[in-house]
Amino acid sequence: MQLRNTVIALIIAVGHSAAAQAGAHTSPTTRKIDSLLARMTLEEKLGQLNLLSFDDRSTPAQLDLVRRGLVGGFLNLTGATATREAQHVAVAESRLRIPLLLGYDVIHGYRTTFPIPLAEASTWDPAAAQAAAHVAAVEAAAAGVNWTFAPMVDIARDPRWGRIAEGSGEDPYLGSVMAAARVRGFQGADLHAADAVLATAKHFAAYGGAEGGRDYNTVDVSERTLRETYLPPFRAAVDAGAGSIMTSFNEIAGLPSTANRWLVTTLLRGEWKFRGMVVSDWTSIDELRAHGVAGSRAEAGRLALEAGVDMDMVSRIYLDDLPAVVRAGRIPVATVDAAVRRVLQAKVALGLFDDPYHGATVERERATSLAPQHRELARRVAREAIVLLKNDTNLIPLDT
After folding, report:
1. Domain span at residue 227?
2. Per-residue pLDDT for 1 more than 70?
3. How far apart, in whole angstroms, are the C-alpha atoms of residue 47 and residue 30?
4. Is 242 domain-assigned?
5. How many domains in the chain?
6. pLDDT at 390
7. Lower Cβ count inside 10 Å, N or C end of the chain?
8. What does UniProt give as the signal peptide span (predicted)?
9. CA pair distance 83, 91, nearest whole angstrom
10. Number of Cβ within a 10 Å radius of residue 389
């Protein structure tokens, strides 16, 4: 009997030791996120996946959602005064005090305007593109923006497509170099820094390959063309450390990107080892119904979440329609938790739990906005972007 008790005691001791060692090897970030997840209700978890929009200032109804822990972030809220107000509500008046992601389309400058990305690409100067993105990050971060929906890295070969100006053109190599440079410029060496913003490579994938140059149109390409032409800039952005990816509106071979598990999970997260966050484009989850792949809002939300899309931009489907689906057992709680974990990891990476305002103040916003050195850089990049077309041999049929 004494020997049996000794053996049991040894087993218990070994178990406690293993658990202690496992805990010791768990990072502080993981422990923090684990603690938050353990305390969150299902609605609060889905709230972290809810990305809403408004113009200039938050409304009382939106701030009430923040107080209830039902918003993970906002887009189109800018200015240190307005962003600090929203962040204060999140970290001082909500139950779990989780800060907000605050996103904005910082495409070619924030207050200081740089040449469009297509023109920047014509410089063939990735250092200039990186410097321009850094200036944009400095000004945006000072105004409270901590997340940019840029760079757009779509390869486009049809000039009829209306968004060709936002990317780097038709060449996968140049597009890849510029994508990596812009990611480094936006994020810097340390996302905790007050002059860094989280970058988003968009639109994943092949958005620029829309048939006939018609926006939102279908894309019908082989996997080889996808990998050789449209995906390289995204891979370059991922390798450069991009913190987030935005899915595209289009279908690829009949399946919308926002519901494409092979694209978002198998390829992006599995093959490429992407560990960041994936966000939908504007209402693209709800648009799965228009594509004909979902018969209801709830079904659209289930398809997107299971494909690997973490944040729902504007549709409010995750927040409003998925609680019942999860409780009915049609979506595992573990799937929700994985998405929430990635959103929280982005907030930790930005240092928002240490400084939810990310260094944004009215004074800093004034000091950085349109700073002389920023305007001088914009002029230099603009000069580099000028392209002189010479038709000395009359190769192009132009009247000169």
Report:
1. 101-310+317-333+357-385
2. no
3. 20
4. yes
5. 1
6. 86
7. N
8. 1-22
9. 12
10. 7
CB contact at 8 A, 319 and 286: no
Residue 260 contacts residue 217 (beta carbons within 8 Å): no
Annotated active-site residue in 154, 281, 310, 312: 281
Residue 76 CB: number of other CB atoms within 10 A?
14
Residue 375 lies in a domain: yes
Q: How far is CA 67 from CA 84, 93, 94, 99, 336, in A?
A: 15, 6, 4, 11, 21
Average pLDDT over residues 136-163: 98
Q: Is the pTM above the cut of 0.90?
A: yes
Q: Which helix (H) or strand (E) holds 101?
A: strand 101-104
Residue that has been written with the tokens 């049929």 in this structure: 397
Q: Hey, what are 114's tokens?
A: 């740089």
pLDDT in tens, 322-346: 999 999 999 999 999 999 999 999 9
Per the CB < 8 A criterion, the answer to whether 46 and 312 are in contact is no
Q: Which CATH number is 263's domain given?
A: 3.20.20.300
Q: What amino acid is encoded at 361 in this protein?
A: T
Instruction: Tell me the backbone φ, ψ of residue 245, rounded to 5 degrees.
Output: -130, 140
Q: Let me know how long the chain is.
A: 400
Domain membership of residue 81 (yes or no) is no
Tokens for 58? 């938050």
Report how far Cα 231 is from the mean position of its chain's Cα atoms. 17
